[in-house]
Description:
The complex is a heterodimer of chains A (293) and B (743). Chain A is globular, with a radius of gyration of 20 Å. Chain A has three domains: 5-55, 2-Layer Sandwich (Uridine Diphospho-n-acetylenolpyruvylglucosamine Reductase, domain 2), CATH 3.30.43; 60-175, Uridine Diphospho-n-acetylenolpyruvylglucosamine Reductase, domain 3, CATH 3.30.465.10; 182-283, CO dehydrogenase flavoprotein, C-terminal domain (Enolase-like, domain 1, 2-Layer Sandwich). Chain A has 293 residues and is α+β, with helices and mostly antiparallel strands. Chain A contains eleven helices and 14 strands. With 743 residues, chain B is of the alpha+beta class. Chain B folds into three domains: 18-27 and 460-578, Aldehyde oxidase/xanthine dehydrogenase, molybdopterin binding domain (Aldehyde Oxidoreductase, domain 4), CATH 3.30.365; 34-127 and 183-275, 2-Layer Sandwich (Aldehyde Oxidoreductase, domain 4); 282-451 and 590-742, Aldehyde Oxidoreductase, domain 4 (2-Layer Sandwich), CATH 3.30.365. Chain B starts with 17 loop residues before the first helix and ends with a helix. Chains A and B meet through helix 11 of A and helix 2 and helix 19 of B.
Amino acid sequence: MRAYLPAYDLQTPANLAEALRLLADAPGVWKPFAGGTDLMVLLEAGKLAHKQFISLWHLPELRGISITDDSITLGAMTTYSQVQTHPILQREFPLLCQAASWTGSVAIQNRGTIGGNIANASPAADSLPALLVYEAELELVSARGARWVSYQSFHTGYKQMAMRSDELIKAIRLPRTTNQWIQHSRKVGTRKAQAISKVCIAALAKIENNTIHDIRLAFGSVAPGPLRCVQTEAVLKSRAIDDATIKDARSALAAELTPIDDIRSTAEYRLRVAGNLLAEFLAGNGIDFHSDR
Amino acid sequence: MSTNQTQIVGQSIQRKEGRDKVTGAMRYVDDLLFPEMWFGATVRSPIARGRIRSIEFTGNLPWHEFTIVTAKDISGQNCTALILDDQPCLADKFVNHAEEPVVLLAHPDKYLLEEARRAVKIDIEPLPALFTMDDALNQTEIIWGDDNVFKTFLVEKGNVDDVWASADFIVEGEYETGAQEQLYIEPNGMIAMANADDGVTVWGSLQCPYYVHKALLKLFGLPPDKVRVIQAATGGGFGGKEEYPSMIAGHAALLAWKAGKPVKLIYDRAEDMAATTKRHPSRTRHRTAVNKDGKLLAMDIEFVIDGGAYATLSSVVLSRGTIHAAGPYACDNVRVRSKAVATNHPPHGAFRGFGAPQSIFALERHLNKVAATVGLRPEELRRRNFLHEGQTTATGQVIREKLDLDGLLTRALELSDYHAKKERFAEHNATNATQKKGIGFATFLHGAGFTGSGERFLESVVGIEATATGNVCILVASTEIGQGTNTILSQIAAEALRLDYEMIELAQPDTANVPNSGPTVASRTCMIVGKLVESAALGLKQTLVQSGLLTDDYSLDEWRQACAIYIAEHGALKSFSKYEAPPNIFWNDETYQGDAYGAYAWAVYVAEVTVNLVTYETRVDDFVALQEVGKVINPVLAAGQIEGGVAQAIGYALYENVVWDNGTMRNNQMTNYIMPTSEDLPPIRVFFEENPYTYGPSGAKGIGELPMDGPAPAILNAIESAIGVRVNCIPLLPETLMKVMNA
């Protein structure tokens, strides 16, 4: 442990209202601490710059999964383990369950939360591309009240979010509209498990008679945040799946992604493999796949 | 009770310390607490090379409460004594690699200690640094000695230059291997107590108690009886705790001496990965003359390793790599020219295999290229060149054992279903655009024990002592580091004395109590130390027989009685045995000719892979490891050694990439230094053949390092068979494969 522990403070408010009051009274002073699976790594390394935190882990208002005919709503503190074992999520939102199973280890999955994953805003986060293609909505709460926002526009830059410093993510709502779509995701990590992604894809599509009627595509680790690829989607809509379509989609995707070289991979690899993943998805649902060689 | 006739050697007997390890009862160095113990920390150079201008103690910290040690506090010689004494214990005027220790701190509060470590500012005037072997060889700067070269070797057999003109083919190739972190589970750590009256005592996680002992003697200028080194339970070493613990012990002892308190110095994973040794990166160039029948006519090999900033063990790593470079093949003309060069990386050091995995990788990749050039299958080329009894290795060592590499290869190819798979994969690859399957193998050897005259110079001694109850204690400095030393040495002693396994115990390695049986390295513990245990045990029995207390055929009760009587009369019953080289073993250090090792283990490893062309990832699907190791002492432990070594070598081949940034390791965390997990590993199917070696205990040879040598070339050979593209560097990451395939 390289951190100087006496310098840190972790408050545990009794309820959500108290937590929001703390945030409102001293804007920017307190930062939320959810499952801690990202923050504890920084603490251990002596690199956790912020020192004052509010624990959200025990707040009942941020827990639970509720279901209506139209949507399923996850409390922000829903863990990856809870996601994976939920029967409706398994049936209707398999990409989210799959992403939850990719994340860290079992211990991490017991502690890491969907709300925490969103707010940590890592471009490599496993669950966020799935939330993008499911067109999730977020409930943000503060002492001033609550509001619902679209997740599509939530990440505005590297670790930047459309959220005020006195707000918390309370819940994530997933519309139950994609059950009949073809669903696909794949993570390319540095190894099979306990790995951070080098590039990953989440995709939904409505395909009939080899024609794409609708498609939603999102990628991780290829931009400053998780990225919904609307330009590529536009290129693909109403097109028949053939070599020309795949080629056009690759070009559109390459224009949309802004990957970087980092400690885990290269921009060149991310760009090409993202294209391969897209082609693999399309080809798996249409013609035979030809590797881009 | 009647005479115990059960064979103990050859049985998978439970580990001596297994129960304590799985129940958590085992106490590692960080579990040990001493009254009034302080904690130590090391402040290191932030840059690779420069002149130290000043050291400042900044921030609002109670510096007067800290014990602060710099080079000025060293009473003896400022070095970490090893082969050459060029590595300072603490950098004084200059630093020569990033993470080089400069200042030591101790304080009772380990959290405040970390604040203090951050607040020490070492101001260094940068000097130009070298990070590549080419820059070192080209002498763009001189950073060590006159020419940046730690050591060179020349092995010559016949004359390669006479052959080139008449060869049907000349095949050239260049091969590179990267650094690799040992990744023992327990990071390095040491506790020291030290003062003028009692001298220096350290407890630590280490492989070689007498290496640490030697280093502390020089550092403090103390007589041998004033320095004591005790091995605590050690959670893995793989060579990573061969030489570096001498440095940490020195640091802990300097702090303890000045503080007047016991000091515990434990590295966390990040510090351990950034600062301590790794496997030497290497580059090998081959030039091979071969005739149209596939007979190797000449092998000209240039082997270079990156030693890092100080000499440490590079010369002996180079030696082993040099000797293994020509492999298990008979060739009349061989020249191996090798160099260990200096760079401003942290010193590279001992790691399982010790130079051999590097040069064997090159050779086993190169021979597939030779085979393709001649138009032979890889197995056929090897069959036409295998060593046989009576033939000589590159150093002129005559093979005196019954050696059947042909048979070993045939069996390995059968076990892996090599030929059928080769056909099946060709069909599969023709129709599958994204998944390409391949199978490949490597054929290799690994010498057990110190190289050349090493064992003669070591003159290892082993003791064995009986108690009045007839139980027996083995006295060795050979350490249990997870590989099974305690268990196999007990089996060997129990077998020699025909006693129960439970009657044998190991003394804690403690330089005040055990003789110097040599370092726990070089696949020598079973073969060399085990043989000494066997002969010391027989000496114990001989003493009782000669005293008339025992006949050659005895029961356990008669043994116990004899021990009790002898000890009542003489006070103690001990026997010591000292290493003597087997007859007909000669080595010439000047010419590098002769018997390089007492014995070799021989192996054929087969890897099956799938290369995914969507992601350029390679998955090893199946792995067969067949080896001839003399005699297997404990089948479960032996198979475990092989499986672990293969896993480690799969990491070496496909995953583990040290990311350097001006000589600093950037990915010094297990999140980003990618060691394969069980999810990434294939079934590892281990098979042994036995051909007892006369001078090993019950015929055993060494196996510890062997499994590190073969997997990387076998896997790369399999990848070539899958995609038809030749790649000759490891680690072979997906990013590299993508570039090569799209070049």
